[in-house]
Amino acid sequence: MKEKAMNKCSLSTLALIVIATLSAFAQQPPDVALQKDLVYGQAGGADLLLNLARPAAADAPLPAIVYVHGGGWQAGNKDESEPLIRLLASYGYVAVSVGYRLTPANKWPAQIRDAKCAVRYLRANAAQLGIDPDNIGAIGDSAGGHLVLLLALMDGTGPLDESGGNPGPSSKVKAVVNLFGPTDFPSWQPRPLGLSDIRRGFRKSFDDLLVDFIGTADRSADVMKEVSPITYIDPGDPPVLTFHGEKDPLVPVDQARALHQALDKADVPNRLVVVEKAAHGWGGEKYENTLRLTREFFDKHLKGIPEPK
Length: 309
Prior knowledge:
The protein has helices at residues 82-90, 110-124, 126-129, 143-153, 192-202, 206-214, 222-226, 254-265, 284-303, and strands at residues 32-43, 46-55, 62-68, 94-98, 131-141, 175-179, 240-245, 270-275. By secondary structure, it is of the alpha/beta class.
């Protein structure tokens, strides 16, 4: 289930935003080489897979951008983002779409373990993949935005980095673009329209969605803070660019504002772009502006290209 473009919407379900946000271009950029189903690790007796796109003519290591899809942690897959990673590769990046274990079969922390494993794989195999291991960024929408924030804000080593494969390299990314991801689970509460959308899309309540993901809907449970990106903010964290719809019914914009207040307090470079009158995704000129700012952000922090004045 997905939208083919980031339509001027209210999206009818959380599952429908799987990769609606940045894969609107159906036309495939030229001169991009695609590798599918690369094994980046193992979990639960199964291979973990990713897709990788790069400029076909590149003859030197390139910075990389990791895309993590949305879908309520229980929908979506890496193949739906092929137009997006081809587009990012056409900008001069190695672009990667990560497949990760979904709920309810796999509860937290399976999802962040897999995302971390993918980044470690890229660093451990940087030479053969043509990647500059010192310049890896990440982007994600909704549930994927949540996971890429954790890649930026959590430590790049530790218990969650001890599974899947390639132990040793850091899983921390250098810059992150968060598209309307939840940031503070104890305070996250969708608007009535969002609750209805979840009920229609998943045939379950928002609390059921949380139970599927982290095992509880009790906002006072320790895991609520453990899963929240806002918990891990420290001075020295990498820069964060967030886009969030002003009228988002699923992840209210207060989630983004709380994140960026905390980032400001810790002196972490950040920018919050509130997209006027937008819901959980948007299109048209707003989409074009999102894409432009995203490219400028990654060019600055992964390539050292100054942002236009």
